[in-house]
Amino acid sequence: MAKKPDKKPEKKARVARAAEEPRLNALGTIVERDIRDEMEQAYLEYAMSVIVSRALPDVRDGLKPVHRRVLYAMRQMGLTHGAKFRKCAAIVGDVMGKYHPHGDQSIYDALARLAQDFSLRYPLVQGQGSFGSIDGDGAAAMRYTEARMHVIGEYTLMDIEKGTVDFMSNYDSTTKEPKVLPAAVPNLLLNGTSGIAVGMATNIPPHNAGEVIDALMLLAKKPKTTIEEVLAIVQGPDFPTGGIIYNKKEITQAYAQGVGPIVMRGKAEIVEGKRRGFEIVITEIPFEVRTAAMIEQMADLVRDKKIEGIRDIRNESDREGLRVVIELKSDATPQRVLNALYKRTNLQRTFHLNMLALVDGIQPRVLSLKEVLEEYLKHRREVITRRSAHDLEKAKERAHILEGLDKALSKIDAVIRAIKQSSSREDARKNLMKKFALTEVQSEAILSLPLASLVKLEREKIAAELGEMKKRIKELNAILESASRLTEVLITELKEVREKFADDRRTQVVKGGVGEIADEDLIPDEQTAIVMTSEGYVKRLSPDVFNTQRRGGKGVTGVGLSEEENVEHFTLANTKDTVLFFTSRGRVFTSPAYEIPQASRTSRGRALVNFIALSKGEAIAAMVTVPKGQRGAGNVVLVTKGGIAKRMEAAQLLNIRRNGLNAMTIRGGDALGWALATSGSDDLILATRKGMSLRFSERDLRAMGRGAAGVKAMGLREGDAVAGAAVIVKASEKSGRIVVIAEAGFGKQVALTQYRKQKRGGKGIKTFGVSPATGNVVSIEIADSEAEELIAVSAKGKTIRTSLKDVRVLSRPARGTKVMKLAPGDRLASFTVL
């Protein structure tokens, strides 16, 4: 099959001819042209006009033409940061009349954006009146609002009067306007920009001034600095609205290429609400998201039942800052609702980085972060060079005049005689030039010299100024002649800008990608206490809410309970730990600790059935916390209240389904009571309600499968039952103690050395002097050398935190001393050591 002829050369030739051919001849008569050629040429001109003169920023000053014209017009109107505010209508009129012959609304929109602190990281204009809001409100009419330049806005125009940039004629050739601004601040990176041209678009985020200027100074000193070194300083975008950005690796790649996605999330926190339940409080939202639109989006999803568990959404934002409160239903899982909001709403968005800008004012290019910085440094070097040349010329002119004045003042009498003998000013100027070898400029300056300058003090001032001017000339020559000296000036000026405008980063950077991030990455890594009641309500709270008291105190309310409800379990964990819940029937469920809702000290918590699928009549018997990264490591020993025990590999509990997993077969009327994480070479100690204890090696329990029922661990007397079980690690054998506490609040510590190792199955030895006054043993805990405090919880929710030093170390048969004073009808239910 024959190839089709290539039409590209023919097309290029036609376009070239069309560009050369005039549409009208010299007499103004119409010249016939091919319609395709005319359309192509016209479209090309239009496209270039949009690209260069409207939509894309200049890499040097970071401004589009309309923004540049607004700032320049404000300077010409004297609207510096110390001036009185002027009506925006006056500014828009001046811009439109002199520089930007387009619609007044487009000019006002550009002016308003320069004043919006939620659009620009460092606003260039200071507004007075309503310039819009993050809720999505538009700016008030220009006749109502007023504006003047911000200090940082003035820095974009600094030294423009010193020939630092080129000027061009305005649209009607009645005045001049700058092609680019001197830009003493790296505005393109500081404030970013977005724009759509013909066939191309730009989207550059704002950045932190301190980071950008630090990177500029490093690059100025070491031009061969790598992009990796630059990105070690510039962490990523720093949005005016704050928020969180994810995946440092992808951010680095995007900046290295100039193009790439950056995932943004708003900042949200789960807190306990005023009613029974929880709230999600949003205090920061992604860049360019409007609060009202986001709330409306959430409301639509709730109405369409695409997100469940939300009772109400309120916008409580005020002058103090943004605050959106999402009130959850009592049966909702807060973290799951928050994840759904991230997935389905603008609470999570992707910023598509595209660092397209005009290089040298005409060439659109996609630049890497390093290239943007290099182009800015190149511009600033040119500005400093042109400014120095301008200042040098002015300094030379002034020095020339001062030299003439100095020469005249040194021969003042002769000068006065020459002037007095002259017939006219012109004659006097010529006489001075002839007699004293002065130039015309010097002679004119002498003739303009007031008599007051003849006094000694004024003569000294002229001599001093001449000395300063010579020194200034020397400095300016050094800048123009030495690249290293020019770099020093550049860095000094960057330091000044940094000191004036640098502030703290607002946007948090998370190293991991949001796709790889588990919910736990949003949760602070901290110690937490988990409390569960007999009615199946669970909560977590910081141990710090319990103030340390003396032994024997009454404690404080640690959980709000109903009349028939008691505290059953109390344990410590890390928020990143995995919690294994073992039921009385031998099933096991799992939940991250952070998914257990955080609540106040006096709150009841949330029903556990919201997290795990318990059967009717099934209760949680034990909780085991597994540190992050240790799932599947070591062993788990399960102990029943009837003294039966079983050891299994923790790896068997890795893939736990939502409806649970059978971990142990429970026989007869027995019930699972404890689950212990072991290493495989630890000792176990069991204590009974009547005060007996048995210590034996975990190796006495052979490893079994999930369906096994276990073997006899301890022989029990009639009416007795296991009250507690603990693990003794080798490191604790010599210095460790066993903490034993009874129902009436009596407790003690016993050295581990008092417990000899026995064989499993025996009845053990005495560990506590149980009596009607002490009540039965509640449980036991191991206190190692690092254990410092004890937290005990009563059945009625009273909690005490006390130093372990206040709990006396006694012998095994002793009954102990009062650890907690209990109210009538109350009993101690659980405790743990810190």
Question: What would you say this structure looks like, in words?
Answer:
This protein is α+β, with helices and mostly antiparallel strands and 834 residues long. The protein folds into four domains: 63-182, Topoisomerase II, domain 5 (Alpha-Beta Complex), CATH 3.90.199; 270-346, Gyrase A, domain 2 (2-Layer Sandwich), CATH 3.30.1360; 373-501, Topoisomerase, domain 3 (Orthogonal Bundle), CATH 1.10.268; 523-833, DNA gyrase/topoisomerase IV, subunit A, C-terminal (Neuraminidase, 6 Propeller), CATH 2.120.10. It is 30% helix and 24% strand. It contains 18 helices and 42 strands. Strands 20, 21, 39, 40 and 42 form a five-stranded mixed β-sheet that branches. Helix 3 (65-76) packs across helix 4. It starts with 7 loop residues before the first helix and ends with a strand.
Outline of the structure:
With 834 residues, the chain is an alpha+beta fold.
Total of helices: 18
**Rough shape?**
elongated
CATH architecture label name of the largest domain: 6 Propeller
CATH fourth-tier homologous superfamily of the largest domain: DNA gyrase/topoisomerase IV, subunit A, C-terminal
Radius of gyration: 40 Å
Question: How many domains is the backbone divided into?
Answer: 4
Query: Cα distance, first to last residue?
Result: 85 Å
Residue share in helix:
25-40%
Parts with pLDDT < 50 across at least 5 consecutive residues: none
Give the overall average pLDDT: 85
Structural class of the secondary structure composition? alpha+beta
Largest sheet: 5 strands, mixed
Strand segment count: 42
The percent range for strand residues is 15-25%
CATH class of the largest domain: Mainly Beta
- In the CATH hierarchy, the third-tier topology of the largest domain is known as Neuraminidase
